[in-house]
């Protein structure tokens, strides 16, 4: 019991706002983190366009998109990230200021995939997610609910 309390205190005071940022998604959403030096970066723009064109597929897979730049960021409906949150995410995932990086974070909060300075196609992304045990359970539940069982 004391170990659990100590762990919670350490987490609360460890200076890791990242946990606060992503904790609300744990066991509810998968998270796509797209890091870029600027919003003008061509690779970033191509990646975001690709994801935007597949919004239904992202929604079906419970994906929340975060866009993170040098000192700013946003997610869901343009909700802003503070500079502290941006820095914590960059530090947590070891992202330099000059890279375009896409990271898939699973519902369990763990990193599932990473692409550095290359496009993460929706085909690759969806195939990866659809092969995960939790996603297969979600598909089975949806099939049962639509078949009336």
Task: Write up this protein.
- The protein has helices at residues 2-12, 17-23, 42-52, 55-60, 83-92, 122-130, 133-147, and strands at residues 30-35, 63-68, 73-75, 79-81, 101-105, 111-116.
- The chain is an alpha+beta fold.
- Mean pLDDT is 88; it is low at 6-18.
Set down the secondary structure blueprint.
Elements: H1 2-12, H2 17-23, E1 30-35, H3 42-52, H4 55-60, E2 63-68, E3 73-75, E4 79-81, H5 83-92, E5 101-105, E6 111-116, H6 122-130, H7 133-147
Shape: globular
Distance between the termini: 42 Å
Class by SSE composition: alpha+beta
* Quantity of strands, as a count: 6
* H/E topology pattern: HHEHHEEEHEEHH
Determine Rg (CA atoms, Å).
Answer: 17 Å
Unreliable parts: 6-18
The helix content, as a percent range, equals 40-55%
Describe, in short, the structure shown.
This protein has 149 residues and is of the alpha+beta class. The protein has seven helices and six strands; from the N terminus they run ααβααβββαββαα.
List the defining traits of the structure above.
149 residues; 46% helix; 6 strands
């Amino acid at each position: 019991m004391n170990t659990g309390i100590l762990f919670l205190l350490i987490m609360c005071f460890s200076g890791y706002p990242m946990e606060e940022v992503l904790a609300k998604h744990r066991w509810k959403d998968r998270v796509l983190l797209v890091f870029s030096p600027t919003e003008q970066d061509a690779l970033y723009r191509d990646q975001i366009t690709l994801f935007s064109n597949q919004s239904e597929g992202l929604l079906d897979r419970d994906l929340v998109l975060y866009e993170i730049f040098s000192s700013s960021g946003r997610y869901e409906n343009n909700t802003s990230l503070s500079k502290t949150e941006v820095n914590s995410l960059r530090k947590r995932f070891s992202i330099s200021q000059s890279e375009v990086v896409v990271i898939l974070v699973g519902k369990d909060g763990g990193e599932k995939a990473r692409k550095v300075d290359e496009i993460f196609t929706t085909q690759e992304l969806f195939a990866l997610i659809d092969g995960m045990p939790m996603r297969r359970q979600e598909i089975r539940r949806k099939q049962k609910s639509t078949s009336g069982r």
